[in-house]
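Q: Two folds, back to back.
A: First:
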Amino acid sequence: MPTLIVTLLLAATLSGALPAAAAQLFVTNTKSDSVSIIDTDALEVVGTIPLGKGKPNRIVFHPDGKLAWVVYDKSHDLGVIDAEARKLVRRVKIGGNPYNLAFTPDGHHLLVLD
């Protein structure tokens, strides 16, 4: 039973996304307000993107793999990361209590769960 609890805790706190056709994983770090970029072949951290305060949590890539979108749990913002430039390019206050996000299959709409 303790293993199940640990597994559930990890699932609730770990959020990552892969850009289209890439060997990198972007993982949010809620305590350091950043994203780690992990090379999935070498299993090494190859970069870190500072995201600013606000407890960035869930992350998802647009289907084209160029931009990643991040939900901030504490500040109730939405951040946009340029994957190639490896930097935060936009941050928007959206209010409410955004928790999760996903793109529609055609990539035309970003759905944010409040």
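A: Second:
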Amino acid sequence: MLSSTAEDGEIEVRISVGFIGEESVADGAKCELTASPTWIIDPVDGTMNFVHGYPNVCVSVALWVDKESQLAIVYNPVLEQLFTARRGKGAFLNGSRIHASKETELSKCLLGVEFGTSRDQEKMVVVMHNINTLVPLVHGLRSSGSAALNMALTALGGTDANFEFGIHAWDVAAGALLVEEAGGVILDTTGGKFDVLSRRYLCAGTQTVASQLVKIMKQFSPDRD
């Protein structure tokens, strides 16, 4: 908003900036993502890992403008890994350009999967079904305990794809841009457009692998952020 003060001729500029994080919804309020610049931040992603001294923990910071990610930072201070991305400028690890996997054969893929912190029975049935279905079809499965780092690993080419149900916007807002800028794809688990508030995602190095996973996976629809 731009306004002028007639008395002294000064011009005042006010920019509306939003914030989405676990702390902003502590009272049960729903997240609201507007067209205004919005910071989506998770100060500790992989909290359970952190508590147990497991090294897969990170800070996740993303800037969204016009409901689209523009800037992403995922930093693992334990392993000193700094993942960064700007829309249209590529994705990087500690300053070096990174690229997602180009694998198209599911049988050769290493996948990231997660159980999540919620033990909702309906969700767990879906998670276990998908894991049991995928085990004989892929090269291997891995679970890091951090959605942001899972996405960063797919951007790096360390995994060929990963997906999760029940995560939150602050877990995935930065990782989504890392994957895109590394040449990968970020989608809803149904194969539709990624929705940062939907609490589910699928990312992959190639559309071919993503499409194969969509056909195989059983779906779960958590309450929206």
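Q: And?
A: The domain at 17-225 is CATH 3.40.190.80 (D-Maltodextrin-Binding Protein; domain 2).
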